[in-house]
Amino acid sequence: MPHPGRTIQLSYTGQQADDVLYPYLQMDAISDHADRFRVSYDVTRDHGPIKTFATEAYFTRVGHSMTDQFRTSSVGSMRPYSMMTRADSSIAGGKIQVGIAGATAGVEASRRSWNAMTSMMANQFQPQYALPDATTDSLGAYAAYGRALFEATRLDIGDRVD
Q1: pTM of the model
Q2: Residues 82, 71: Cα–Cα separation, whole Å
Q3: pLDDT tens string 80-121
Q4: Distance CA 149, CA 14 (A)
Q5: Which of 42, 38, 40 is nearest to 59 (CA)?
Q6: For the chain, what is the HEC assignment?
């Protein structure tokens, strides 16, 4: 049985698309696959010093392959295509946030990764790495405070460090 003032959310989306045509680009997606997952837990209380507590975790992964194999530009190629790009990316992260008497403070962290490689007949299909295993780690902390000064005036201040 759910407790009052507590919320749990869980979500997942998956995409498995193949042969996606892009008339405005020079290549079409042979595969476009994605997975997205998110879970969160929130607590809101009327009593005690801690009024709110929230935590969230998420993960997304995308794999995307494109070629010109359905285009006239691939005619005469020794492979089914004359150009190909494979891009993979992912991000995983989370945050924790606490609210105490008009103030909110939290911490967020994430890791994002990219990898993209292109191969073209014009370069004898030698791999070209546009984003070769690039990874970014992020960590941030933030705090905010808000208070009504007068009936029509409110003061909000905050800071964030990454």
Answers
A1: 0.82
A2: 9
A3: 999 999 999 999 999 999 999 889 999 999 999 999 999 999
A4: 47
A5: 38
A6: CCCCCEEEEEEEEEEEEEEECCCCCCCEEEEEEEEEEEEEEEEECCCCCEEEEEEEEEEEEEEEEEECCCCHHHCCCCCCCCEEEEEEEEEEEEEEEEEECCEEEEEEEEEEEEEEEEEEHHHCCCCEEEEEEEEEEEEEEEEEEEEEEECCEEEEEEEEEC
The set of residues, in sequence order, having a beta carbon less than 8 Å from that of 1 and lying 6+ positions away, is: none
Q: Angle at Cα 6 formed by Cα 99 and Cα 3, nearest 5°? A: 140
CA distance 52 to 39: 17
The one-letter code for the residue type at 103 is: A
Using an 8 Å Cβ cutoff, are 77 and 97 in contact? Answer: no
Which of these, 112, 114, 110, 64, lies nearest to 89 by C-alpha position? 114
- 11: tokens are 């979500």
Q: Tally the C-alpha atoms within 13 A of residue 118's C-alpha that lie toward its C-beta.
A: 11
Q: Tens digits of per-residue pLDDT, 113-147? A: 999 999 999 999 999 998 889 999 999 999 999 98
